[in-house]
Amino acid sequence: MSTTTTGLRRAADVSKGDQLPPLTLKVTRRDLIRYSGISSDCNFIHYSDKRAKEAGLPGVIAHGLLTMGMVAKIVTDWVGDPAAVIDYQARFGRPVVVPDDEAGTTIEVTAKVGLVNEDNTARVDIYAKCEGQLIFGRCYAVVRLA
């Protein structure tokens, strides 16, 4: 778990298979309202149960890019510098339903180093689950190591 003085994780300390510390995220309707305002994505499926169900969804769902951004925290916390993330991709698999209560919903995130490259980069494979189901089909980040 060594880092250099710049805060980046050192390549010599990273191996394929290394597990990152798990992350638990909470998503509430309030988060969705805030994100709608910032992103200008005010689609009814992100705040109206009635309209979400009319669209064939089980209820209000979180914005895909909001969940993707929140999940990236597992990598940025681990690598030590958000600017060290040089690629981040996710294939959306299932929506994150957010109930209309104070508790919201929980996303459990785990990750492991899938590959360490000779150019001081590493691919981190990310697994995010809501209610025991993966929300991304494939999700990974490539990070620059010190």
TrEMBL record:
Q: Which Pfam families match?
A: MaoC_dehydratas (PF01575)
Segments forming domain MaoC-like: 23-118
Source domain of life: Bacteria
Bilayer-crossing residues are none
Q: Which InterPro entries match?
A: HotDog_dom_sf (IPR029069), MaoC-like_dom (IPR002539)
The family note in this entry says: Belongs to the enoyl-CoA hydratase/isomerase family.
PANTHER family per the UniProt record, alphabetical: (3R)-HYDROXYACYL-ACP DEHYDRATASE SUBUNIT HADB, 3-HYDROXYACYL-THIOESTER DEHYDRATASE HTDX-RELATED
Question: What protein am I looking at?
Answer: MaoC like domain-containing protein
Lineage, broadest ranks: Bacteria, Bacillati, Actinomycetota, Actinomycetes, Pseudonocardiales
